[in-house]
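Priority: medium. Attachment 1 of 2:
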């Protein structure tokens, strides 16, 4: 109690980072163990959602603290991922039915894509946010409006697919996959806008163009990962 009082917040932080639903006592009961993994991965999904919320603000206007927050969230996500994959490997050593093997394989695939999403946000968007901050770049209101449309669509699709995974909702996941043409159109519209503004009489126009087009590429890759998770959810629904 004295340590908790002297160092407030530290024990809570350690508890928050530790896995909650990976029980070694039930590894020999694969259905129960895999359900625990699914619940743990919902915690991973919540951290990805938090990173999405932080990412746009960080890259468009956020201070250093917001960029650092992205990196901290990714560290938490990586920790949960490591625990989850290690646990799934142990479950995989048990005698599994075909359905259990398929569920194990899909959970590994979704976990990999969640971790990759976090890494993409942490390495790419945080790096672009750092570049904007270090170079003192200011994205114009018109360019922000274009970027916001792409961000809202991709972030919304990512949130929907994470919800689809949590609820095992194959219909919602299929709806995300059907957004491919819409997202492609938003990407092309954004690139056309940034190209047209390349000759605008603004300071740092070339540097801003590189930043903005790099962001479009990151959102393209992010949506691709969301579609892969959606495919795994749809596959699970088809098997059921």
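Attachment 2 of 2:
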């Amino acid at each position: 109690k004295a340590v908790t009082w002297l160092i407030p917040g530290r024990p809570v932080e350690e508890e928050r980072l530790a896995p909650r639903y990976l029980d070694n006592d039930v590894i020999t009961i694969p259905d129960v163990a895999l359900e625990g993994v699914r619940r743990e991965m919902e915690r991973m999904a919540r951290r990805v959602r938090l990173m999405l919320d932080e990412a746009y603000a960080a890259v468009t206007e956020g201070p250093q603290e917001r960029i650092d927050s992205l990196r901290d969230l990714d560290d938490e996500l990586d920790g949960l991922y490591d625990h989850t994959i290690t646990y799934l490997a142990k479950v995989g050593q048990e005698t599994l039915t075909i359905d259990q093997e398929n569920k194990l394989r899909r959970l590994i695939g979704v976990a990999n894509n969640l971790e990759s999403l976090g890494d993409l946000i942490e390495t790419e968007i945080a790096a672009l946010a750092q570049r904007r901050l270090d170079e003192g770049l200011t994205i114009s209101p018109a360019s922000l409006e274009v970027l916001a449309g792409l961000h809202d669509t991709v972030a919304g699709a990512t949130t929907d697919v994470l919800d689809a995974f949590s609820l095992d909702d194959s219909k919602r996941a299929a709806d995300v996959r059907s957004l491919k043409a819409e997202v492609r159109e938003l990407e092309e519209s954004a690139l056309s806008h940034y190209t047209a503004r390349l000759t605008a009489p603004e300071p740092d126009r070339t540097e801003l163009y590189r930043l903005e087009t790099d962001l479009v590429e990151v959102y393209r890759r992010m949506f691709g990962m969301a579609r892969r998770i959606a495919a795994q959810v749809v596959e699970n629904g088809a098997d059921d």
